[in-house]
Amino acid sequence: MGEVTIRELGAPGDLGWVLMAHGERYAAEYGWAIDAVTAPIVAAYAMQARPGRDAGWIAELDGVRVGSVLCVERDDATAQLRLLLVDPDARGHGVGRRLVTACVDFARDAGYRRMVLWTNAPLAAARRLYLEAGFTLTGEESHSDFGVETLGQSYELALTPS
C-alpha cells in the first residue's frame, strides 16, 4: 500500500466525491440506492458548515481520494459522525480508524459533550471501528430508506467524563 494521508475536506470536488463514492460503493456492495439519503447531508454541510463546529476529512492514498467522514453539529452539546466511507482498496490499513479518530478528536476539541451516529447492521467493519472508539449501541430499528429492508443502528459516545 502507498502513502495514506488524512486531510481536511475543502479541495474542489471533495463534497461531490463524497456523494458519488457513497452512491457507487453502497450500490455495488449492498444494492442500496442511498443518494436520496446522502445528498441532503452533503448539501447541508456545503451550505451550513460552521468553522469550529463542523468539519470533514478526506483520506487519500497516493493523492487519490479513498475515504471520508464528516462531523456536524446535532445540537449545542451533541456532534454527529456522518458519511464514513473507506474504499475497498484502502481497507484494512487503518484508514477508517484514522478518520473516526479525527472526527471524535475534533468533536471533543470543539466542546461537544457527546457524539452520535447512525449506521446499518450490514456495515460490520464500520461498527467494529465505532465500538473500538468507545461508542455504544443505543437503539435499532428496521427501515427501507435505501430501497431494501435493513436494520438501522444508533450509537453514542460520551466525550466528557461523567
Throw out a few tags for this protein.
single chain; 7 strands; globular; 162 residues; Aminopeptidase; alpha+beta
The unreliable regions are none
Mean of the pLDDT scores? 93
Quaternary status? single chain
Count of discrete domains: 1
CATH architecture: 3-Layer(aba) Sandwich
Strand order of the largest sheet: 1-2-3-4-5-7-6
Q: Can you tell me the overall shape?
A: globular
* The CATH homologous superfamily: Gcn5-related N-acetyltransferase (GNAT)
Polypeptide structure, described:
With 162 residues, the chain is α+β, with helices and mostly antiparallel strands. The protein has a single domain, classed as Gcn5-related N-acetyltransferase (GNAT) (Aminopeptidase). The chain contains 4 helices and 7 strands; from the N terminus they run E-H-H-E-E-E-H-E-H-E-E. It has helices at 14-30, 35-48, 95-109, 124-132; strands at 4-8, 55-61, 64-75, 78-86, 114-120, 136-143, 150-158. The chain has a 7-stranded mixed β-sheet, sandwiched between helices. Strand 6 (136-143) and strand 7 (150-158) form a beta hairpin. Helix 1 packs antiparallel against helix 2 (35-48). The termini are far apart. The relative contact order is 0.16. The model has no long low-confidence stretch (mean pLDDT 93).
